[in-house]
Design a protein that fits this description.
single chain, 45% helix, six-stranded mixed beta sheet, 17% strand
Amino acid sequence: MTHATLATLSPPAKTASRTPADQALTIIQRAFEQDPPVRWLYPSNADYQRYFPDFAAALGAPAFTEGTLGLNAAAAALWIQPGSEPDEAALGALIERSIPAHRQADVFAVLEEMGAHHPVEPHWYLPVLGTQPEMQGRGHGGALLRPVLEICDRTGVPAYLEATTARNRALYARHGFEATAEIRAADCPPLTAMVRRPR
């Protein structure tokens, strides 16, 4: 499948030595500090600070290489277009080195359950969307949803994501996503599988 570069998602001009990827991961790290499933994954602050940016980067890897990173001053979205996938090898290696051995099977079970709820047809996947806490509720995240949802509508392709909080579910519902399942595995706080059909 041909990979599209999304000019509409072009990041702001980079500062000094900070790349768009660096900016995005800094925003994402701040955005998920209180997120229940993420803090189940990395309960200690030290592990969260050290490893979660790499986890997000592996989960949304194609966004950085295929031009589907959404970025503004307050929010970052790691979109994965149809035909692309998270970097499963990097995810597996990171889990093995950053999660205690007795918890690794649970983490892999959560990821497997997440994968089982994806639409079977080609779809855009949003594994990570985060807004800096002090900037939430001002439309910054929604601004990174709209360009891809417009592509979905134009091309007749659904979009899929997992919401991790009630606030996130409400945001996505406002943009046309519908809950399709509750994702439960091990003792991880539940995630909500959500699909938006093209309009």
